[in-house]
Specification:
2 copies of one chain form a homodimer. Chain A is of the alpha/beta class. The first copy, chain A, is about 40% helix and about 20% strand. In chain A, strands 6-5-4-8-7-9 form a 6-stranded parallel beta sheet, with helices on both faces. In chain A, strands 2-1-3 form a 3-stranded mixed beta sheet. In chain A, strand 5, helix 7 and strand 6 form a beta-alpha-beta unit. The longest helix of chain A has 18 residues. Chain A is elongated. The relative contact order of chain A is 0.14. The mean pLDDT of chain A is about 95.
Chain lengths: ~230, ~230
């Protein structure tokens, strides 16, 4: 809720228990000063509004956050994360949090990715959903066309790619504008989607794991790219 | 189950539905040749044995996997992940998977970390639980003493540390034997635990996220360390 208040016009209505308002005095003052309605409710009513097992006592009704890709990308944007058919809400939330931490300029959801307004995505993003531009892409082709039009190098994260991210970083061969495409948890990126990308790069596997979780792979790819871009 | 069969003596007993055995012919031959009992059961019985919503049809009863730290660490071990009070089973499973992928030599659970034999940890590790030595540490002090005795540089992952992992890697200042300590999801590492470590290093936050999920932070720390060590 605190992060939602940071986005102008995002919060439409707030429900809170008196106890929660007492526990979070600074937030309570912000809520009372807001241009939206603030309704007190009891624990049972709050619990039925919040989907979590141990609700924190304050719930906000918010507007949608996504924007068109053309509006989301600032002119000097350098790093974008594209979730392609990412289906698990916990994974998508962790990916958004991680893109925020690594300083990505936007997160784009393409193909049949899970709804970013799903409550588990919102919770797993730990506020990051409100921090960086979110784009609900349409089909993969249209999404990647729009990124190409903005001069992004579109890189598919593919576990079996011969080129690995550490080699590319060591050779300073990462683009100035990079859009990483992360595929589905179970089957990765299909051949048709891979054909739309400019390049395939792997996170190397040194042990016996078959693959990495999509959010951990994204953390390695996004941070390594951010470091290479910032060293220039 | 396939990964458990790779650990000598690990599998004690197997339950499977006839359909699952037909779907996985190679595994079925391995199971029939095993020195443990293989019992056929129907879907309802299998579902009551498997804790997952969509069980895959084969369940193995396995022995415990953990060993003492002194036995777990081979002489040329270079990279160890220590989970200190990591409570969420999904996080611990993802951390074990990620340590396996990054080529870590062992995972050590210290303090009040979640039971690694919890079914959610096992599933989230996607087989990696069976791939690398697992140590159930006792108290933090005893665990870190044992690592110090093996000449490990014990590094605490602390978001607020002034030194960041990219700077340390760029200066080639990462130890030849590194044990990373990852703290609790909610409160990180406490002062007492931090005092036991040799050094604190942060994953830098470039955006507005307050922190990273423990498994994504571990992915960045472990891979960056593995790359620095492998470049030598």
């Amino acid at each position: 809720v605190r992060e939602a208040l940071g986005v102008a016009g995002c919060v439409h209505q707030v429900f809170a228990t008196p106890n929660a308002l007492r526990r979070h005095e600074d937030l309570a003052s912000q809520l009372r000063a807001g241009s939206f309605s603030l309704s007190l409710c009891d624990d049972a009513a709050l619990a039925s509004l919040a989907a979590s097992v141990s609700p924190q006592g304050i719930v906000a009704v918010c507007g949608f956050l996504d924007r068109a890709l053309a509006d989301a990308l600032v002119d000097d944007a350098k790093l974008v994360a594209v979730a392609a058919h990412v289906r698990d809400p916990g994974n998508l939330g962790a990916l958004i949090r991680c893109a925020d931490a690594a300083g990505a300029d936007a997160v784009v959801l393409a193909g049949s990715s899970v709804d970013p307004y799903n409550d588990k995505v919102v919770r797993a993003s730990v506020g990051s959903l409100f921090h960086l531009p979110l784009v609900l892409g349409t089909a993969m082709a249209a999404t990647l066309d729009a990124l190409h039009a903005k001069q992004f190098n579109v890189v598919a994260a593919v576990g079996s790619a011969p080129e690995t991210i550490d080699q590319v970083a060591a050779a300073d061969a990462i683009g100035d504008r990079v859009a990483w495409v992360f595929g589905n948890e179970a089957w990765g990126l299909g051949a048709a989607d891979r054909a739309l990308c400019d390049r395939e790069i792997a996170v190397p596997i040194y042990g016996r794991a078959e693959s990495l979780n999509v959010a951990t792979a994204a953390a390695v790819c996004l941070y390594t790219t951010a470091w290479a871009q910032r060293r220039r």
